[in-house]
Specification:
The protein has about 400 residues and is an all-alpha fold. It is built from 14 helices and two strands. The chain is globular.
């Protein structure tokens, strides 16, 4: 592992682990609801009777930032890859690395995972009958695969932007260079653009509605803000990454405690707003009041920005050591993400009647999911040519 990429590689692996944690605990949140007549509308594919309020806070924290940070990290080396490989080779690489795994997830992995959820409806249909019925009815299961197809879409969008609007990427890169000493410049710009990207969408479609077009699904209120973070990462990584915002000797890394404090304060504000709605506004008909929705939209965008930068600051400051417990997972992290949903849902389903409380169940699901998905990825990567995909 190169010194230049050590912290960013480890941050990427860490976020993958957070995804596994989030999916492992969401079955045990206090707000969990399962709807047998419309199981795909449930708060999670599998919902257990055992709950713990602490998982509410954990899932809220993850939801506040981790997908935006994944898009930012995914965008870092897009400009360099395009310039080095050219458009044709870049497209071939993206088709193999993103398009093929998404198709496998869509056609094989996600239907297999969601069969556990379907079984909770009380239906006695076998798996193949379930699979065929979904094909006939046009029901698709993206699961975590939504991130992969939307990342592919942003990669495709990056091509005309880089070649026909290079000033945009160069401008972001110049701002990153200026932020070597003054990271507040980049943070302020990213927060403002994130507010502009998120708040109008929040008012237009609400926070939880999903876009569905055949097999393509994504949380509609966040389609623009995800693009903002992707292209922010693309601009940061376009040139001289070691001399900009993410330099390991820059102010962001050296003053990590300031960004951690700011992130915790912003997340505290977001938590207060969410709990205020759940406790005092849950019975109101229609959309939440204007003051709440606008406050939530602004604070969510700010918290997302600050938490992302705080996580990066921590890894830039402490993730440059020669060795890390995250290193063995580095090459397998993407494959773990692709395959993990089957063991998550199957283990949650298997533990439904186990005489355990929520915390040990979640720990078993997480440990089992990590072991099984890591082992499966390691085996798959031994197949000739598989390393180009996973």
């Amino acid at each position: 592992m190169s010194d230049r990429n050590a912290a960013l590689d480890r941050a990427r692996t860490f976020i993958t682990l957070l995804v596994l944690v989030n999916h492992s605990v969401v079955a045990y949140t206090a707000f969990g609801r399962f709807y047998p007549n419309h199981y795909l509308w449930s708060t999670a594919p599998v919902v257990d009777s055992q709950r713990w309020m602490g998982f509410n806070l954990l899932t809220l924290f993850n939801d506040a930032f981790f997908m935006c940070l994944m898009f930012l990290l995914s965008g870092l080396f897009v400009a360099g890859s395009l310039r080095r490989k050219g458009i044709a080779a870049f497209l071939r690489d993206r088709a193999l690395r993103l398009g093929l795994p998404f198709l496998v997830m869509l056609m094989v992995l996600m239907p297999s995972a969601y069969y556990a959820s379907f079984r909770l409806t009380g239906s006695t249909l076998g798996f193949f009958e379930f699979y065929a019925a979904n094909l006939r009815e046009g029901i698709w299961f993206d699961g975590p695969g939504w991130f992969i197809w939307y990342l592919l879409f942003l990669d495709l969008l990056a091509i005309p932007i880089l070649y026909f609007a290079p000033g945009l990427i160069d401008g972001i890169n110049r701002l990153s260079q200026k932020s070597f000493q003054r990271p507040a410049l980049f943070a302020g710009a990213l927060a403002i653009v994130s507010i502009i990207a998120y708040v109008p969408m929040l008012f237009q479609v609400g926070a939880v509605r999903w876009f569905n077009w055949g097999p393509l699904q994504v949380q509609l209120s966040r389609v623009v803000i995800y693009g903002v973070f992707f292209f922010a990462g693309m601009g940061i990584g376009a040139a001289n990454i070691d001399q900009g915002l993410l330099a390991k000797t820059g102010t962001l890394a050296r003053r990590w405690w300031i960004w951690l404090t700011a992130a915790l304060l912003s997340f505290g504000g977001l938590t207060w707003l969410v709990n205020f709605r759940r406790m005092l506004l849950s019975n109101l008909p229609g959309a939440p009041p204007f003051w709440w929705q606008s406050s939530y939209g602004v604070i969510y965008a700010v918290a997302c920005t600050l938490i992302c930068l705080a996580i990066l600051a921590l890894f830039l400051r402490f993730g440059q050591r020669e060795r890390s417990f995250l290193d063995p997972m580095r090459d397998d992290a993407y494959g773990i993400y692709v395959v993990h949903y089957i063991p998550v849902l199957c283990l949650q389903y298997a533990l439904l009647n186990a005489p355990l409380t929520a915390i040990p169940k979640a720990l078993i699901v997480f440990a089992g999911t990590l072991a099984l998905s890591w082992g499966a990825t390691a085996l798959l990567r031994r197949i000739p040519g598989a390393r180009r995909v996973l």
